[in-house]
Amino acid sequence: MRQMRPDCGWLPEHQTHVIGTLAHVDRLIDDIGQMLADYLRPGPFTLDNVLDGDQAHVIVTSTAPIPEAIPRYIADCLTQLRAALEHTLYAEVQHSLDQPLTEEESKAIEFPACITESALAKWLNHGRRRKLEPLKDGSELVSRVRRLQPFQRRDPDEHPARVLAEHTNTAKHRAPAVAMTRLGAVVPAVEHPALTVSIPLRSVAGQDNGGLPINEGDVVASGPRGLRIPLDIWPRVSIQRPHTGSWPIVMKELGYLEKWIRTTAIPILINGTRDVPELPPHLDITTGYKDIRGEVHRAGTVPAFERDRIRWNAVASRGSLLECLNAGSDLPRDTIEQWIDALEDDKAIAHATKLGTAPDYSAAFRDAVSELLAEVRAHRSQRL
User: Fold this and answer.
1) Which helix (H) or strand (E) holds 80?
2) How far apart are CA 160 and CA 152, in angstroms?
3) Mapping DSSP to helix (H, G, I), strand (E, B) and coil, where does residue 257 land?
4) Where are the domains of the chain?
5) pLDDT tens across 328-348, in order?
6) Which residue from 60, 76, 51, 6 is spatially nearest to 235, judged by alpha carbons?
7) What's the mean pLDDT when you consider all of the chain?
8) Which residues contact 104 (CB under 8 A, 6 or more apart)?
9) Which residues 6+ apart lie within 8 Å of 230 measured at CB?
10) How far apart are CA 295 and CA 6, in angstroms?
């Protein structure tokens, strides 16, 4: 994947702290993705076939509990995202005043998430906040804050500022983030008119839902006794939005909020526009930098959510490659597996995509398989 060199020339010196916070968020999301992969890959559902007269049902007999670290890492990530927003506003107020803030003034600075214009007016008129010149209604900074408020959208509950505020308020004051393993889809290897599944893939296509709740004893598929069709069960780990009760997929929720903070909220708070080069999401902050802005040319431009998506695509692509190549060759399966395991993720995806775009058993498909098998043989020769 081609990366453009990051450019943070528009970021003022008093706001360079946000580079480190965003890098920390990226690392947390990456860690969450890795933990979710370790949890999901073995399959969190235990299934059994149960006969019922002339019917057979696939039922859930148990669900592996989500590791306790996952909801806490999620809460940490959400808190750091909100910190990026709060710290940016604080630094902007302090820089505008060009003097140290008192303890009372410091406590008055927080980023609001108002669902009505009147609620924002009340926030601006509260206590010491109204005495701070940068936070007086009509100032440029207040204009920027107003543009980022939930009431600017038709559905304020879906606005990222509202979603983030509700998540972090709950995680800080009530309980860790509420995460649950849910059923995303049940995909049969072949369609059969007598086979019914609890949630087919086509019913969730194009929808950003977190799947159905799943419990022990739930039926995921039913069909005539003796019918044997392999099923692909898609689990999803979802997080509950406290204010709506909806269950978006964890990684999509984190990716959605991280992108808004990094590409919209921070630039607008600082510059009044999002039409600036994107802040880099990924930078090694385990090393100390005298000038962190001077190091952004080393930063990665692919956010953790996208890297996680690529990893999962690569897993699916490797499985597809193994199926196609193993069926079309007399090479040992482990030889093919070793070649596939050695591929970079983007290479595995590219190979699988090439096979997938050629009609099955067409001349183009056979030629593509032959080319890849030649690479397998070359790889085996190098290892001998």
Assistant:
1) helix 69-97
2) 11
3) helix
4) 8-298, 305-383
5) 778 888 998 999 999 999 899
6) 60
7) 90
8) 128
9) 188, 189
10) 10
